[in-house]
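Quick question, first post here. What does this chain look like in 3D?
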Amino acid sequence: MTISDVMTPNPEFCLVDDTLLDCAQLMAHKDVGLIPICESRDTRRVVGVVTDRDIVVRAVAEDRDPAVVRAGEVMSQRLVTCTEIDDLAQVTQLMEDHQVRRILVIDEYGSLVGVVATADLARNGDRADVAEALEAISAPAPSPTK
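> Answer (accepted):
Ran it through. Tokens below.
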């Protein structure tokens, strides 16, 4: 089974200059916790992601106005991606290795074509592999050394 069989295709996204309020409203409307950030509506080339946690930690907690702060100011640029032809085991391992719950699915040009979440894998993957991945994803990150 490949990722194209389980991913959410053609997800909504925001642009770098959209506000965090735009991102949050789209999250609420689509009932998601991650919004891909693309360079343009035409190319759909992914340049980052904004999560609900990013909005809280990088804006609200710092008393920054989400109606003014742009997605590009707080987006995570460390992207973990896969392609539609990757198999579930490969993507499960990617999630585990990078401790992420969602991975963007891109085409050969870096354009957004889908999103795959741990819930997608849980519904369709090997239960033991998914359980192992969830344990690894949820493990506390190592403390930085001084």
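The longest strand covers residues 46-51.
Helices lie at 20-30, 52-58, 71-74, 88-98, 118-124, 127-138.
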